[in-house]
Amino acid sequence: MESRALKIQRFHLSDVSRERMVTGIKLICMFLFLYTAYAKIVDHERFLNGLKNVHIITGLAVYISWFVPLSEILTFFLLLVPQTLKWGFYAFITLMTIFTGYIISALLLEKKLPCHCGGVIEKLSWTQHLWFNLAFILLAIIAVWLFKSKQNFNNYKR
Questions:
Q1: Residue 21 — very low, low, confident or very high, per pLDDT cuts 50/70/90?
Q2: Which of 24, 75, 124, 153 is packed most tightly, with the most Cβ within 10 A?
Q3: What are phi and psi of 124, to 5 degrees?
Q4: Which residues constitute the signal peptide according to the record (predicted)?
């Protein structure tokens, strides 16, 4: 029985480590969305024209061109406020999953693949972009897991 208890505690992160990891992931996610939202708003016409060139969303391009950066900014603020951090990570995961689905569908259905994400991220190939998104989704899921296990640990200690 004692060896089983030792095995369970072998992968234990301190509350400080857990909090630092969540904070680090939060800052990376916040920076990504603020950066991409800024790039899409500053060069909105280019972003809109890029969306219009994707056949699967042409009819919704105008709405999407405003919805995406506004959603990224809203998610940034959800991640910024400690009381809404968990919802910010859920919003981040949801948006990144939608973006990843868009990338997969574009890879499968489009002949010409224009990238209009903004800034340095546009330099990635579509396959690299797919892996980039998946890595960020994984990071956010880890942050949610760390956040939830910290809450469970704190509730258990009381």
A1: very high
A2: 75
A3: -75, 150
A4: none
Residue 4's Cβ-count burial label (10 Å; 0-12, 13-18, 19+) is exposed
How do residues 60-90 score in pLDDT, each as one tens digit? 999 999 999 999 999 999 999 999 999 999 9
State how far the Cα of 47 lies from the Cα of 35, in Å rounded to an integer: 14
- 């190939």: which residue's tokens? 125
pTM for this entry: 0.83
Cβ of 55: how many Cβ atoms within 10 Å? 12
Distance CA 114, CA 110 (A): 9
Residue with tokens 């868009």: 102
pLDDT in tens, 97-137: 999 998 898 888 877 766 666 667 777 888 888 999 999 99
